[in-house]
Design a protein that fits this description.
By secondary structure, the chain is an all-alpha fold. The protein has three helices and no strands. The protein is elongated.
Amino acid sequence: MDVHGTITLDEANHSRIAVMQNFCVSFFMESDVFEDIASGRLIRVLEDCMPPLAPLCLYYPNRRNHSAAFRAFIDLARYLASQEAT
């Protein structure tokens, strides 16, 4: 592959368009291009070079009077994290 010049884009949709037009390769959040990968419009390359995903962290104030909705969200996040660990 001959490479001529560089391109820097900071908008995922612009990067997606450039990749779809065979202009470059790019790094995406999988959720941004899942349908393109599933349909075969895009393919994964350099998958073996990807670092492992770091776990997500959730920071929130340590107050005792959280709303029921917020408490439910925290409980769900903890449950999902425990399911991924197994």
